[in-house]
Automatic annotation (TrEMBL):
Protein name per its UniProtKB record: Glyoxylase-like metal-dependent hydrolase (Beta-lactamase superfamily II)
Highest taxon in the source lineage: Bacteria
InterPro entries cross-referenced by the UniProt entry: Metallo-B-lactamas, NDM-1-like, RibonucZ/Hydroxyglut_hydro
Gene3D superfamilies registered for this protein in UniProt: Ribonuclease Z/Hydroxyacylglutathione hydrolase-like
Recorded coiled-coil stretches: none
UniProt keywords, alphabetically: Hydrolase
Cleavable signal peptide: none
Domain Metallo-beta-lactamase: 19-228
An example molecular function term from Gene Ontology annotations: hydrolase activity
Presence of the UniProt keyword Hydrolase in the record: yes
The species this protein was found in: Streptomyces violarus
PANTHER family in UniProt: METALLO-BETA-LACTAMASE DOMAIN-CONTAINING (PTHR42951), METALLO-BETA-LACTAMASE SUPERFAMILY PROTEIN (PTHR42951:SF14)
């Protein structure tokens, strides 16, 4: 399956993988790659880099919103093959090493199997490597506070709840928020359209996930690039508040 690469702003591309998005930020010949889809999305990740005129050798760093397999998929491959640093929030580093796993259990998913869309999503997740053991051997915490010295100058924003170390990435220069799973615009298991939290079963601590929407509502921007669902255009604040209303 070919990845759907969409340019949403100067040097900014939202890529729709098989069920998860990733983002490419370009600056000259270098790129920042935010998230990497499922393990089974590797060919799509590599193809998406080529489509924007880049290559895996040109990836200055991989930034991970959180260490679930549908976002972490090719991070270790890029690190081991090309020496690409993989950065996460310090609380998410041991999660990426798989010292623990904050992910919905198979039992919980089965209990929710009656809900629309859940069983097809499970089949896809299994086929794409969603439950494989896929650690990053040497993940690193962000090297500096504030804006990172990487293409796009993304600013990590700690948004715990989905996982302890979940981070969104704010790109003030283009008014972009890369929100990961802290704020999405759709999911195969959801029947809500537009900005929303993922269904409850996916969050490690749902109350913290709801509270993190208030952090996102403080950010300036007009482009929401979520971990799942289409690009959302309009004030980030409005999107975060709309998701909060759905969650209450």
């Amino acid at each position: 399956m070919r990845a759907d690469v969409q340019q949403v702003a100067d040097g900014t591309y939202l890529v729709h993988g098989s069920n998860t998005n990733w983002v490419i930020l370009t600056e000259g010949d270098a790129v920042t790659l935010v998230d990497t889809g499922y393990p089974g999305d590797r060919e799509q990740v590599l193809a998406s880099l080529a489509e924007v005129g880049s290559s895996p050798e040109a990836v200055a760093a991989v930034l991970i919103t959180h260490a679930h397999n549908d976002h972490l998929g090719s991070a270790e491959y890029l690190r081991a093959t090309y020496g690409t640093p993989v950065y996460l929030h310090e609380a998410e580093v041991p999660h990426a090493r798989r010292e623990f796993l904050q992910q919905v259990s198979v039992g919980t998913v089965l209990k929710n199997g009656w809900r629309p869309g859940v069983l097809p999503w499970v089949v896809h997740a299994l086929r794409s490597g969603g439950t494989t053991h896929n650690p990053v051997t040497a993940p690193e915490p962000f090297p500096t506070a504030g804006a990172l010295d990487l293409p796009g100058r993304p600013v990590p924003v700690h948004t715990p709840g989905h996982t302890d170390g979940h981070c969104a990435y704010h790109v003030p220069g283009t008014g972009v928020l890369i929100s990961g799973d802290a704020l999405v615009s759709g999911h195969p298991t959801s029947r809500i359209e537009g900005p929303q939290l993922l269904p409850d079963m996916f969050h490690h601590e749902r109350p913290r996930a709801v509270a993190s929407l208030d952090l996102l509502a403080e950010l300036e921007g007009e482009l929401l690039l979520p971990g799942h669902g289409p690009v959302h255009r309009g004030p980030v604040r409005d999107a975060a508040l709309r998701a909060r209303e759905h969650a209450l």
